[in-house]
Amino acid sequence: MRIKRISLLNKLVVSFVVLAFGFTQVQSQIPRRDSLQYQIQRLKSKTDFNPQDSTFITLLNDLGNEMRYFNSDSLYLLSKEAYSYSSSAEYEYGQSSSLVGIGNYYEDQGDYEEAIKYYQKALKIVKDIDDKNEILNIENSIANVYYYQGNYAESLSRNLESLELASELGNNKMLSIINENIAGLYADQNDFEQAIQFFKIVKKINEQIGDDINSAETMSNLASVYTDMGELEYAMYNINSSISIFEKHKIMDWLAFAYQVKGKAYLKSKDYKWALYWYKQSEMLHKNIEDNRGETTLLNGIAEAYLGRDKDDLAEEYALKAFEISERIKFHEETQNSAKILYQTNKNKGDYKTALAYHELFQTLHDTISTNKNEKSLTMLITKLDFEKQKEKLIVENEKALASQKIYIYLGLFILVIFLIVTLIVKRNEKIQKKLNIELYNKTAKLVHNEMELREINETKDKLFSIIGHDLRGPIGAFQGLLQLYKNGEIDSKDFLQFIPKLRSDIDNISFTLNNLLSWGRTQMNGSTTKPSIVSLENLIKENINLLEETAKVKGIRINNKVKVNTLCWSDSDHIDIVIRNLMSNAIKFTPEGGQITINADEHSTSWEISVCDTGVGIDTETQEKLFNKNSNITTYGTNNEKGTGLGLTLCKELIEKNKGKIWVESVIPNGTCFYFTLPKMRSKLQKAG
Q1: Torsion of CA 19, 21, 25, 30, to 10 degrees
Q2: Half-sphere exposure at residue 391, Cβ-oriented, CA atoms within 13 angstroms
Q3: 156-184 pLDDT, tens per residue?
Q4: Burial class (CB in 10 A: 0-12, 13-18, 19+), 398
Q5: Residues 340-369: pLDDT tens digits?
Q6: Of 185, 405, 407, 687, which alpha carbon lies 20 to 30 A from 11's?
Q7: Angstrom distances, CA of residue 41 to CA of 15, 37, 49, 60
Q8: Secondary structure letter of residue 469 according to DSSP
């Protein structure tokens, strides 16, 4: 099983540096250590570079941590360099991180006393600055070293204390790691039942964390324990799941361990061929990794697999490598395994003297380790019981302290309740005041809106009365006067009949004006609704030509209808009828005798563009800009002094826009005027009217 840890160097500072210098893209393309080297060189190349800068020191420590399992000498040199700069700068985090890096180096070399010395120095710094999370990280490293030394009692004691602190801080990541390392302690004592219980706790915590890499590390360790238990199906499930995650994220040191565990599972089932395959996969990765403990276990596994395939020479070669490394780093369990394999290979080739020497070494180590394990198991139990007793004692003391403080607590609660009641009353009043303010604001806004609507209605009323008073009362009054003259006998029938053409013209104008007034009034009072349907523009224009033809003949004006058959649009027929009639009436009004009016329709992708052009007097630019304004009331006299209400074009604009079109004018004095408007083309019969 592989010990888990969190590095002190895994801080937010690196993320800040990446964002500040724009290295996100670089990191996604090359390994992280290469990215860190690039960032370091980038900082060094700056003219204002200062090696005592905290960002630079953090990068050195991070790079050293990344190099731990790839080049341990680099870890040592970078940590020493970072410690020198951070000491000069009095940068506490940099010092503690550097000391941990040096401690990691000595731990990997098997010099555990030296490792603990540096870890303790780092621990003192973070305790002085009261950084509890960093205290947890370093305590975890110290507990791991005691585990490697075989001091299980001290390792368990520190882990149990760290569990309390991690729970207090709510640090789930460290809770997961510490519980998993405790599981490893029990697994090493072959107390698999207790180990599995701790693994269950770890899995629940990992689900809350939601980190797939952390979960994969746990599954690898769990697979190793299941293999030792002989539960190979569980082992294979967990190790295959972890391998896929490590391969995806390219976590090479853990991937090497996972391949090794898979090889161990096959070795346990005596499938030496596949055991060798997975061990070899791990061996290839170990060429770029410096992990002496992991490599020793791997070499012994390969040696045992070769021994199972009767390849004693290769088994001996790998066992000797494992023996040399395990002796150097004081890894007695693997020295014992190497001695066992070397005893077997030498026995098989008839070198009984050497075989006996290895057997004696194996037996000595076996007895020592077994004795130590029994002692350690008992010590661990005592340590756990002592810890539980201390915990119970603390609980009792805390309960007594709490009991003595109950009066103060109750008094404090009473004051708090009074304060809450006062606060609730104030909040309630604020809420009521806020509600009243909102209601007042809404009512004020509604009054302003109603006032605007009323003003617009009054303006519409005034305009209607003005038109009725000036433009309709005159012609009607003249008609009444003529009838009164005829009634009083002041004119005879013959004279009266001479006024008939003029009367008819006046009545037509009155009728036309009334229609415009009613249509415009409806639009202003929001009473006019649009009911679109399929409209034949050609027929609508013909009807209006027939209606206005006699008026045009009086002035000798020729009307040309160039609109083709089947020019179909989707609009309100009544609205478009009013628009065409107004535009044609205006054209007749402002076209001199002998002129002509041309009506045309051009097809576009989704609409028709209709034009009504005359050869009249034209309109100046200033008037053109005001023609369609809602509040303008431009009334001009035609070429024969015809008079209008000034409503026609305003009404046309409103009706065209209601039918989803637009209207505009183009005119040059004295070359005539063209009014243009657009209408949507005919829709599918299956489409609903809108």
Answers
A1: -110
A2: 12
A3: 888 888 888 888 888 998 889 988 888 88
A4: exposed
A5: 999 999 999 999 899 899 888 888 877 776
A6: 185
A7: 17, 6, 10, 11
A8: I
